[in-house]
Design a protein that fits this description.
There is one protein chain. A hairpin with a 2-residue loop joins strand 27 and strand 28. 29% of the residues are buried. The chain is elongated. 5% of the residues lie in helices and 55% in strands.
Length: 497
């Protein structure tokens, strides 16, 4: 009880000291609206690691970003736009935020304010009503009129400069979740980049300030680095004031496309063709068709876990944050289907992404897969409908001497020649114990098929349908996990012979 009374008395003394010299000065609370960065203490520039960024809404709510040792907390803090409440009465500014059972308050007198900066007299911090031992010196806060929170998202490659932990010869990949990935050049493969083994790897950006933290290994001490940044077009600069007034700087260029570029080039049909630089097996492909209204139609037939991973143009939603793409929704069973990826390189015909996670395969969240997609301009989903007579090739489940009939409802029939007489054909529909023999789906130039025959079977093909003289020809190619390349050729017919 005695401690509480003394703490309350300290607050009252501080409040009275804050107001004793105000000379009737009063500031409009709405004038405080905006983002403000701590710039000087006692007239001297603050080191970049000591930055504090306050954002006020002009009414009563705001945020604070800080990533350094905080005296009143007695520890190194990591506040990434931490929510707070505040009041401005006359010239008395009072901010409050809590962290569990801890309540922190800052009480200051504003001595001057313009649309570019405001200054405070020596002020005091309180922890659960107990005042900090040393007062905060006279401070200047500068108005920040930019916010690079979204602009920084993407892949950047250093072009000059260096910091306390490395030079510019690296790449940084930023994601909206506040995670980043650090790449070093591959000395064995020029032009290739290797993901660092650092852990933690978090960043916080607020206005034109960014802080990083990471660990070299899970058991190592935490490292941090702080920067003031500017982004213009596809160029980014980092500057920092360190101990002994030493200055550091980086410049870097954006590698990934901007959000505007993605919005322009993304609509259309894309098929996955490579994973980590290697051609992907035909059964591992997926097709993603984007429209201009936030919808993506997703086709996959993956038997890794269960045969229910069959999605034929499943409608999902997609969102873009910078170059960061999220495709998400639920399938017909209510199961979440989700892809998260950063778009690294993009043209009208090619797309390269870093894939983070997907409910499809349960991969870890780190970017262990670099996927390449190609734009698909053909769509054979209607052209395949009808009867096809095999004339060449074969696959794992049979040769070309069969007939396939594809219906417009996603089912197909399969016919065998039952004649034992050379030169005579007697085609009989092969029953597999399920309606219409089998299921199929075509999205663009990718065909997936399924049938039952003492078990569930799947087969996948890249297809092409074209005119050769007076005949319509369909060709299938399939790259298999054993390295084989299967091939079929067939012609369209009007009726079963």
């Amino acid at each position: 009880m005695k401690k509480y009374i003394f703490g309350l008395l300290a607050v009252m003394i501080a409040l009275s000291s804050c107001k004793k010299d105000n000379n009737g000065i009063s500031f409009d609370q709405k004038a405080l609206a905006g983002k403000w960065k701590l710039a000087t203490l006692d007239g001297k520039p603050v080191q970049t690691n000591q930055r504090t960024i306050y954002t006020f809404d002009g009414v009563s709510a705001g945020t604070q970003t800080m990533a350094d040792f905080m005296e009143v907390m007695g520890e190194q803090v990591w506040f990434n736009q931490k929510k707070l409440n505040y009041t401005l009465q006359g010239d008395a500014l009072h901010t409050r935020w809590s962290d569990g059972s801890i309540r922190i308050e800052w009480m200051a007198n504003i001595t001057s304010m313009s649309d570019k900066q405001f200054t405070t007299d020596p002020s005091r911090m309180f922890k659960n009503d107990d005042p900090e031992k040393d007062m905060m010196p006279k401070a200047t806060f500068e108005k920040v009129n930019v916010d690079y929170t979204e602009d920084i998202i993407g892949l950047w490659q250093g072009t000059s400069g260096g910091g306390d932990y490395g030079d510019y010869n690296h790449q940084w990949l930023m994601t909206p979740e506040g995670k980043y990935y650090y790449f070093s050049p591959d000395e064995k493969n020029l032009g290739q980049w290797i993901l660092s083994e650092n852990t933690l790897n978090e960043y916080a950006v607020d206005g034109d300030f960014v802080a990083f933290r990471w660990k070299e290994t899970p058991d190592a001490n935490e490292d941090r680095e702080w920067w003031d940044i500017t982004i213009q077009d596809k160029q980014m600069s980092w500057t920092a004031l360190r101990d002994n007034n030493e200055r550091r700087n980086f410049t870097m260029a954006r590698i990934s496309p901007t959000k505007d570029e993605v919005n322009q080039m993304l609509p259309g049909k894309w098929r996955v063709t490579k994973e980590n630089g290697a051609e992907i097996y035909t059964n591992k492909r997926s097709v993603h068709t984007f429209d201009n209204a936030g919808n993506v139609y997703y086709t996959i037939a993956d038997t890794t876990f269960s045969k229910t991973e069959w999605h034929n143009k499943l409608q999902l939603n997609y969102t873009l944050t910078g170059n960061y793409l999220v495709e998400s929704g639920k399938d017909n069973t209510g199961t979440l289907v989700q892809w998260r990826s950063s778009l690294i390189n993009m043209t009208n015909n090619m797309l390269r992404v870093v894939a983070y996670s997907s409910s499809r395969d349960g991969k870890a969240s780190d970017p262990q897969r670099m996927l390449e997609l190609e734009k698909v301009t053909d769509d054979f989903s209607e052209a395949i409908q009808g009867k096809w007579y095999g004339i060449d090739g074969g696959g794992a489940h049979g040769d070309y001497h069969h007939i396939w009939e594809y219906l417009n409802d996603g089912t197909y029939y399969y016919y065998n020649d039952s004649s034992a007489t050379p030169g005579v054909e007697d085609w009989k529909r092969q029953g597999f114990g399920q309606p219409n023999d089998g299921l199929y789906g075509v999205d663009g130039n990718w065909l997936v098929t399924s049938w039952e025959n003492n078990g569930q079977f799947f087969e996948w093909w890249d297809i092409e349908i074209k005119e050769e003289g007076e005949e319509t020809i369909m060709e299938w190619t399939g790259y298999r996990e054993n390295g084989d390349r299967n091939y079929f050729k067939m012609k369209k017919i009007d009726k079963i012979p």
